[in-house]
Specification:
Blueprint (H helix, E strand, L loop, with lengths): L6 H14 L11 H40 L4 H10 L6 H10 L1 H11 L1
């Protein structure tokens, strides 16, 4: 019986990686070994940054709340302490949106907790 090589599976595996490398610059898009390394690294970054995105947004929200609170004569830590003490169930995402897009509503929240 002649020797059989499963070239179909290996070709499909390479095609899958080359499809992910579409749009990369230079040899990263069309040379197998370079593309494979670039795609693997890209997937590592994607995994890591899905978690980092959560941290970055929380940091952005805190910055926006701090700016809004200081415009109304409070620091961020004082404001959040009083918000939690007053049992106001607004998370940082909502408070940051109020501070940025609806300053009069944010001022009402600040006045309520003062």
């Amino acid at each position: 019986m002649p020797r059989s090589v499963n070239s179909v599976a290996s070709r499909a595996r390479r095609k899958k990686v080359m499809k992910l490398a579409k749009g990369y610059f230079g040899r990263r898009k069309n040379v197998w070994t370079v593309a494979k390394n670039a795609v693997e690294k890209g997937l590592v970054y994607a995994f890591r940054d899905r978690r980092q995105k959560k941290r970055n947004f929380r940091s952005l929200w805190i910055t926006r709340i701090n700016a809004g609170a200081r415009a109304n004569g409070m620091s961020y830590s004082q404001f959040m302490g009083k918000v939690n003490g007053a049992n106001i169930d607004l998370n940082r995402k909502v408070l940051a949106d109020l501070a940025m897009n609806h300053p009069e509503a944010f001022k009402a929240v600040v006045d309520k907790v003062k």
